[in-house]
Amino acid sequence: MNERKIIEDIKKLKREKDAVILVHNYQLPEVQDIADFIGDSLDLSTKAKLVENKVIIFCGVHFMAETAYILSNKTVILPDISCGCPLADMITKKDVVELKRKYPDVPIVGYINTSAEVKSEIDYCCTSANAVEVVNKIPQQTVIFVPDKYLGSFVKKNTKKDIILWAGYCPTHLKILKEDILELKQKYPYAKVVVHPECNLEVQQIADKVAGTSGMIKYVQQNEDVEYFIVATEIGMCYRLKKLFPHKEFIPASKLALCPNMKKNTLEKILFSLETLQPQIVVEEEIKIKALKSIENMYKLMEK
Ligand code: CIZ
Fold it and tell me: What does the pLDDT average to over 69-82?
């Protein structure tokens, strides 16, 4: 079937099934093009909570679709059920239980890149957009941050709190090297460098701005006079930024920064998932209730 026909069928089925398509900033260009909403995991989780449609087609990775399910109580479909996240897999529920035993009075903040099971044991959830804010607003002085040690180190640099780090990392962001950016800076000397906090610390150090994807969008918006940006995050973000700011240029810091999981949701799979309403994401009730608490704790802190 050709792409135009697939898109027509997706639109038709979306209406018939009362579905909404939520798409993460790192998804394939053609998937971003058919989105009802595009954003980072915080934007999409909030959207999942608010939309009135019966069905959510979630184009992102597994932990994001789980979060949408926990928050929305709707039918949530992940077009390719095998879209995992190696970073999220670097900590288990058992690890968190062990941390709680070792540090009984220390609250645990878990990045949104964690499974629902892990979220059910942590105290607060956070995203790349609000990690510093969440940690700063927790009453206790010492905080455990899991699983990303680079985002955790970024938080540590921007807070007066004592942070205990977990040793997880995102393999895709670690493909971006300081040398890649320095080379690009020679070619584009006036470019601003925007770096995701999942990148290594050497890369963070040479950034003009360290921010999650929603923070990157704000930064580009604020820098009206700047034409070129070197973008150190998953490569899909350059397409997102170019669509938002067609008169500016976005240069990927490394073409190797491609998350294979983020690219698994294709138009064909989206069409199939609308036809069949499969594969659905379901989280066991007890885990769901406990995980919801850590996500709600994040929203409560953000209101403070
Ligand atoms: O919060 C998200 O969606 C992730 C995982 C990254 C980002 O900065 O958007």
Answer: 96
